[in-house]
Amino acid sequence: MLNKIASALDVTAEAIKNFSEDGDVFNIQHMQGHASAGSSFNQCTFNPLDKLIEVMDENKKLYERLLASEREKIEILIQQQNS
């Protein structure tokens, strides 16, 4: 699951495991595609866990709107049957 989250956030799973709340910016170690390049450090200006929670909240809101829409449809059908 951690690998899927890391992939969605375009960070490494190791970066999430080693995340520290010491500041808004943390280092992510990216492994280069070829061994001779070694690794480099990039600054990331967001907390991947905050981003995950944000996406989950958006999904929840979408689900709630869908549910409300379905309830409205049911109410309309019930009113049509009673008429």
What attributes characterize this protein structure?
83 residues; 2 strands; 58% helix; two-stranded antiparallel sheet; alpha+beta
SSE topology:
Blueprint lengths: L1 H8 L3 H5 L8 E6 L7 E6 L3 H35 L1
Antiparallel strand pairs: 1-2
Biggest sheet, open or closed, and with what strands and sense?
Answer: 2 strands, antiparallel
What order do the strands of the largest sheet run in, or round the barrel if closed?
1-2
State the distance separating the first and last CA atoms. Answer: 51 Å
* Unreliable sequence segments: 23-39
Shape: rod-shaped
Number of H/I helices: 3
The overall pLDDT, averaged over residues, is 76
Rg of Cα set: 22 Å
E-strand count: 2
Q: Look at the helices and sheets and give the structural class.
A: alpha+beta
SSE pattern = HHEEH
| Proportion of helical residues | 55-70%
Strand content: 5-15%
Can you put this structure into words, describing what you see?
The longest helix is centred in the C-terminal third of the chain and has 35 residues, at 48-82. The protein contains three helices and two strands; from the N terminus they run ααββα. 58% of the residues lie in helices and 14% in strands. With 83 residues, the chain is α+β, with helices and mostly antiparallel strands. It has helices at residues 2-9, 13-17, 48-82, and strands spanning 26-31, 39-44. Strands 1-2 form a two-stranded antiparallel sheet.
